Amino acid sequence: MKVTLISIPVRDQEKALRFYTEKLGFIKKKDKPLDGGNRWLTLVSKEAQDGPEVLLEPAPNHFEPSKIYQDALMEAGIPYTQFDVDNVDFEYERLIKLGVKFSVKPSTMGTTKYAVFNDTCGNNIEIVEEL
Amino acid sequence: MTFYEKEINRINDIIYSNQEQIKTVIEIRSYIDNNYNSDLNLDLLSHFHFVSKYHLLRLFKKHYGLTPRQYLIDKRIEKSKEQLIKGTSVTETCFIVGFESLGSFSTLFKTKTGKSPTRFQKEQLSRSKLHSEF
Fold first, then answer.
1. What is the ipTM for the molecules in this complex?
2. CA separation for the pair A117, A31 (Å, rounded)
3. Residue ranges of chain B assigned to CATH 1.10.10
4. Which pLDDT value is given to residue B131?
5. Contacts of residue A77 in chain B, CB cutoff 8 Å?
6. Strands A53-57, A5-9: pairing kind
7. Contact A94, B12 (CB under 8 A)
8. Which of B2, B3, B63 sits opposite A110 (nearest CB)?
């Protein structure tokens, strides 16, 4: 078995695609039409294009518990997904300039530096740098 | 303050109160990052930081979840990929990143990445060729 995919629940796939590619810098990998306007939509990191894919899945629109869970995580400020970056401060400055909203500014915990932002699609996302 | 921030602060106070300790392990990791290609061993590392070898091993594992040796191997494999992609030969790569025997390098590389260094390099090179021809 291999790990090749992680899922991120999103309310609007097209909006999510724009945010994740234009602001975060991911690259679209697969885009297959599914039933009812839904898509199998995956992204890869620019630096590791043969690495794991991120699936932007419209689960909250079709499965109520997914929506409830997503809302509860958002309310509690909990990031369910995290991405590694080389430099949290640098990414923070870069994303702030692009209008991204952070709920946690760059902070340190032990040997980890982290920050949390809103992906505008229903999720808190954490960026992490190992010190 | 959100639930998340409260929890993070609470855990931070319990687990990461010893700033000196954190500073030491961060320095050790950064030392490995900068000297991964030389003959590193725990005696040397503990000597630099005036701590016992076993204490250092425990500290590193506690903070990074890996032993220094495991961390070093991962670092060398990551660097060897960069070399192979650049077109450096397998033998040269092996010594550039600090492994002492070609056999152990190939075995470790295969275990960690699922491919032999030769196969990995071939795939990378044929991929870059494909881009221009396809």
1. 0.86
2. 26
3. 3-70, 77-133
4. 65
5. 2-5
6. parallel
7. no
8. B63
Fold of B3-70: Arc Repressor Mutant, subunit A (1.10.10)
Residues in chain B, pLDDT under 70: 49-50, 130-134
Compute the average pLDDT of residues A51-64.
96
Under an 8 A CB cutoff, do A109 and B4 touch?
A: no
CA distance B92 to chain A (A): 24
Give the gap in angstroms from C-alpha A76 to the nearest C-alpha of chain B.
5
**Which chain B residues have a beta carbon less than 8 Å from that of A78?**
2-4
pLDDT at A26: 97
Q: What is the pTM of this model?
A: 0.87
Which CATH architecture is the domain B77-133 placed in? Answer: Orthogonal Bundle (1.10)
Among B residues 2-61, those touching chain A with beta carbons less than 8 Å apart: 2-5, 8, 11-12, 15-16, 22, 25-26, 29
> B57: burial class by Cβ within 10 Å (0-12, 13-18, 19+)?
middle
Residue closest to A16 by CA, chosen among A50, A49, A39: A39
| SS3 of residue B5 by DSSP | helix
Question: What is the least distance, in Å, from the CA of A77 to any CA of chain B?
Answer: 5
> What's the pLDDT tens digit per position in A18-50?
999 999 999 999 999 998 899 999 999 998 888
Of A79, A107, A110, nearest to B15 by CB-CB distance is A110
Q: How many interface pairs between A and B have CB atoms less than 8 angstroms apart?
A: 36
pLDDT in tens, A63-107: 999 999 999 999 999 999 999 999 999 999 999 999 999 999 999
Cα-Cα-Cα-Cα dihedral sign, residues A48, B35, B66, B16: negative
